[in-house]
Design brief:
Blueprint: H1 3-11, H2 16-19, E1 28-32, H3 36-48, E2 52-56, H4 67-72, E3 80-83, E4 92-95, H5 97-108, H6 116-144, H7 155-174, H8 188-201, H9 207-210, H10 216-226, H11 229-234
Parallel strand pairs: 1-2
Antiparallel strand pairs: 1-3, 3-4
Helix pairs in contact: 3-5, 3-8, 6-7, 6-8, 8-10
């Protein structure tokens, strides 16, 4: 059996590959689309240089609710991956963008400090994004841009405006005397945070309502983030078929 045939056989264990066949089974398989959570992983892959194959999971056709996708992530959320060369050489399926970022950082030895104190501080800011920044911005987007904007009661919207401003104030303060969340070194904390800031200002069009001009360090770092070549590439992955 050739290496390619062996790679195909290993991936064939996973039902998701029936809906999204691998053209390059030796590469890491990414299932997602270019949302803030989705591009965290594609940007990380571009930054680290790991070979990967992207598969577009269409929300328009509810692909994420399909049995094949659910077999990989029972929570039916993107992104998810299968690394055909996981720990011990065995395939590793993984979901949750934060967990994937940590895994890829440890696999490649990149974008996560190895000194224990700095490592845990980086993970602290990653968890801040996962538990605070992302959910707050997402709720604001619902009440500002989507169905929630039609609610007569504006208290839910105003709550998430206030919480989003509080989050931005924390990030702006952190960036007041440093280039990135961890200082001069760009890390997975930045890869987690800035796609959501970009989405808040762009897709959600919420810059005015949160008073983004009051947070100049956030906008400065965002500009540096979106100018990175790996970020430019990662923001377009996976491409719509």
């Amino acid at each position: 059996m050739t290496d390619r045939q062996s790679a195909h056989a290993r991936l064939a264990r996973f039902p998701i590959t029936r809906k999204w066949p691998a053209q390059h089974p030796e590469r890491l398989q990414l299932y997602g689309l270019p949302t803030p959570n989705g591009v965290k992983v594609s940007i990380m892959l571009e930054e680290t240089g790991l070979p990967y194959e992207g598969h577009f999971v269409s929300f328009d056709t509810q692909d994420q609710m399909s049995p094949e996708f659910g077999s990989l992530n029972p929570y039916n959320k993107i992104p998810a991956i299968i690394d055909p060369d996981g720990p011990g050489g065995e395939p590793l399926p993984l979901f949750e963008s934060g967990a994937i970022l940590i895994y890829l950082a440890e696999k490649t030895g990149q974008l996560l400090p190895t000194r224990p104190a700095e490592r845990y501080e980086t993970l602290q800011w990653l968890m801040f994004q996962m538990g605070g920044l992302g959910p707050m911005f997402g709720q604001l987007g619902f009440f500002h841009k989507f169905a929630g904007k039609d609610y007569e009661d504006k208290r839910p919207r105003d709550r998430y405006v206030g919480e989003s401003r509080r989050v931005l104030r924390v990030v702006d303060g952190r960036l007041a005397d440093r280039a990135w969340m961890m200082g001069d070194d760009y890390t997975i904390a930045d890869i987690a945070i800035f796609p959501w800031v970009r989405n808040l200002l762009g897709f959600y069009d919420a810059g005015d309502i949160v008073g983004i001009s009051e947070f100049p360090h956030v906008t400065r770092a965002l500009a540096a983030f979106v100018a990175r070549p790996a970020v430019i590439r990662g923001l377009a992955v996976p491409a719509r078929p």
